[in-house]
Amino acid sequence: MITFHRQTLLVVAPHPDDEIFGCGGLIHRVKEGGGKVTVLYLTVGTTQDFSKSGASTADERVREIESVVKKMRIDSYHIAFPGDAYMLQLDSLPQRKLIHEIERGPISLEAFKPTILAFPSVHDYNQDHRAANAACISATRPVNGNFKHLPKLLLEYEFPYFAWSPSVGPNPNLFLSLGKDVLRAKLDCLKLYKSQMKAKKGPISVYGAETLARMRGIQSGTDHAEAFVVRRHVA
Q1: 163: number of Cβ within 10 Å
Q2: In this structure, what is the dihedral angle of CA atoms 162, 181, 4, 104, given to the nearest 10 degrees?
Q3: CATH topology for 8-233?
Q4: Quick one: DSSP state of residue 217?
Q5: Which of 63, 91, 147, 170 is the most buried (most CB within 10 A)?
């Protein structure tokens, strides 16, 4: 049985907002259970996008991170590759650097020693998300635990664009029920990522996140849920 009491959760988020879209409910559940949460943001930069403003700046996104961290009571965070060099170009970064950051960076498996690691799905359409997934899989390869920390639970989280994928999937095998308070906390945090919200009823919106949670709830017999793929669970 998986419990979220007194757990330590490390979330690998390629960009700000991925951690809330993918596992805001999980973060809330771990904190409510007396646990600790830290987030490793891989890149934060200035980007053009298809939104009303047409762009979001790195400074905007950092301010939004700080608001979300405070509201969700996240214990610590780190931005691994700040600036524009790798924003939406993590696939151009040598995997060795990504793996090293996840294994041994300032906020990493060795520094934080989490019991749970959550990271993007291998089926994600976004190249940065797939690069993050590949690095996390490599960083958690099974080795002798005397020499390297291995989380007991590895979870792939999903993004609202889950159906628009270069491959079939994901096929979730873990559903985290979201009560009204947990769902509200997740959606309230998404509202703080103002620069990232797109069309009001599109996937990357509060509406999109709530609709996906409702669909995963229907699939799991609850009102709302977050869905994950368990890549490894050591009991």
Answers
A1: 12
A2: 60
A3: Rossmann fold (3.40.50)
A4: H
A5: 170
Q: Report the C-alpha gap between 226 and 204 in whole angstroms.
A: 16
Query: For the chain, how many residues are written?
Result: 235
Residue 40 sits at the vertex; the CA angle it makes with 189 and 75, to the nearest 5 degrees, is 60
Q: Coil, strand, or helix at residue 156?
A: strand
* Domains of the chain by residue range: 8-233
Beta bridge partners of 38: 10, 76
Q: Report pLDDT digits (tens) over 170-220.
A: 799 999 999 999 999 999 999 999 988 878 888 899 999 999 999 999 999
Q: How many helices (H) and strands (E) does the chain have?
A: 7, 9
Rounded Cα distance, 104 and 40, in Å? 12
Angle (deg, nearest 10), helices 58-72 and 180-192: 160
Written as six digits, the tokens of 99 are 């793996």
Contact 152, 10 (CB under 8 A): no
Instruction: Report which DSSP code applies to 106.
Output: S
Structure confidence at residue 211 (pLDDT): 96
**How far is it, in rounded angstroms, from Cα 91 to Cα 192?**
28
pLDDT digit string, tens, across residues 112-163? 999 999 999 999 999 999 999 999 999 999 987 788 999 999 999 999 988 8
Distance CA 108, CA 102 (A): 5
Is 128 within 8 Å of 90 (Cβ atoms)?
A: yes
| Cβ–Cβ under 8 Å, residues 210 and 178 | no
pTM of the predicted model as reported, rounded to 2 decimal places: 0.95
Tell which residue, 182, 37, 185, 175, has the closest CA to residue 117: 37
